[in-house]
Amino acid sequence: MPPPAVVAAGKDTTTVLVPASVLLLVLLALAVTRRLQLNAFRSVQLAPVLDDISTRSRAVIDGLYHSPYSGPPLPPPVAPERVVQIRWPGPPRTLRQIDLPDLIEQARRADAIIRLQVMPGELLREYAVVFEIWDPTGTPEPEGLLRCLDVGIERNLTQDPLLGFRLLNDIALRAASAAINDPATAVQALDCIEGLLLTLVRRDLAIGVITDDANATRVLLDDPDWETYLAAGVDEIACLPTHPMVSRRVRSLLDQLIAAAPADRRPSIQARIWDLDRSARTTGGD
Hints:
5-stranded mixed beta sheet, 3-stranded antiparallel beta sheet, alpha+beta, flat, 9 helices
């Protein structure tokens, strides 16, 4: 019987490229993991969120209100006898922004004034009046007017500075609630609100009468006034029983505003200071 064959096992060889590639992939995975950790940590910190909301809101304010405050606005134009109404034909949607140049052109073609009944951030309700066309000499096309409106299911900051106040108030109210009890975060939100209100109190907010190149009035907007912005900034947080730190910050905010405000904008601020002081005396007396 012949002896069994002997099989010699050879040694496998690898190049240095394989372990180097593995090492490189491990380092890349560690870097990606670290980046995800940092992003997650940043997402739970409210300071960057507050700063982002404040910065974007300030950009919207600067884009809408260019001029310094020069006095109370003129009375709005009075509607004529002949008014054509355009209603919203679809399901409820949020108005996100307006194509204003196109709307001015539509008004010019109809030789009319177009009044927009809603502003960015507001809800377009089904079959509600969206446009009024005043004294048109041409035939307004509803489809063309409705195309000037960018709608969606939620608000954005493009032309909606009130959204910034809504977001900041939501953060402040949640932080000041009994469930969370984080007055320091509420104060941070109020810092941002104060910055926005200090910008607005010195600006001309009357931008609702829009003219064309020939200086003819073409579009009317129901733009927010100072009282609307002030209420959006402080009323909700001021009327709730909250931590003394938050109450003191609201009072400081109002003091800063009244010092910077033109004379005819001070009464609305002063009324809130009186309400806040009266509430503090009542609470202290209980």
